[in-house]
Specification:
Helices cover 46% and strands 12% of the residues. The protein contains 12 helices and 7 strands. Strand 6, helix 11 and strand 7 form a beta-alpha-beta unit. Helix 5 packs across helix 7.
Length: 241
């Protein structure tokens, strides 16, 4: 919940200038709903795509305050973040609601960026893999191989978001590899190799390269650093494999 429409416009105009000619890394910004329209206009013809931070699973109806899939596609959105840890923590989202949102996004041609990850107490009690498995399997329940192949999964250890703590490259790769193996077991080699798995958790310019070195880490879901043009642009540059 950062940036008014005007502030978001200033940010993406700065990113356009900084990232002009950068084609090796796919860049997506997900502004607040109130800024999507202006951001969409600003990014026309650029190499930066855009999406939303959330979605609702119904087509339309008496759901005051919610945003339907076709409202997002009407604005040209291509992506949608689903199940972010803050949504799970503060708004009590569950694997079931995440699954409904993922299905709604796919139905309307949006690429879901589905978030999974454990809290500090879960990591400390050795439950990381159990939690991640639960999130992955619950979020993807009932989806076809074709659907899963088009999804982005973002591993975000909740204990490393906004805390200044970051998973070591080894810790990040370990969980990413585990997610890849879960996908391989459930959907086969072809699907598991197509799914992009991102790391999200205090990603900064000075740790991007070491984290991205992991063979199963395909990108980053950037939080606070994405609010600063120079930092975000540097993360994109450092993220080249």
């Amino acid at each position: 919940m950062y940036k008014t429409a005007g502030e978001a416009l200033e940010l993406v105009n700065g990113l356009k200038n900084e990232l002009k000619g950068e084609t090796e890394v796919e860049v997506v910004v997900c502004p607040p709903f109130t800024a999507i329209s202006k951001v969409a206009d600003a990014l026309k013809g650029s190499n930066i795509a855009y999406g939303a931070q959330d979605i609702y699973w119904e087509e339309e109806g008496a759901y005051t305050g919610e945003v339907a899939p076709k409202m997002l596609t009407d604005l040209g959105c291509k992506f949608c973040i689903i199940g972010h840890s803050e949504r799970r923590t503060y708004f009590h989202e569950t694997n079931e609601t995440v699954n409904k949102k993922v299905k709604a996004a796919l139905k309307h041609g949006l690429t879901p960026i589905m978030c999974v990850g454990e809290r500090l107490e879960e990591r400390d009690s050795g439950k990381t893999f159990d939690v991640v498995k639960n999130h992955v399997e619950g979020g993807l329940a009932g989806l076809s191989k074709e659907d899963v192949a088009g999804i982005v999964i973002a591993y975000e250890p909740v204990w490393a978001i906004g805390t200044g703590r970051t998973a070591t490259p080894e810790q990040a790769q370990e969980v990413h590899k585990y997610i890849r193996e879960l996908l391989k077991k459930a959907y086969g080699d072809d699907v598991s190799s197509k799914v992009r798995i991102q790391y999200g958790g205090s990603v900064k310019p000075d740790n991007t390269k070491s984290i991205m070195a992991g063979p199963d880490i395909d990108g980053a879901l950037v939080g606070g650093a994405s609010l600063k043009v120079k930092d975000f642009a540097e993360i994109v540059r450092q993220g080249k494999k």
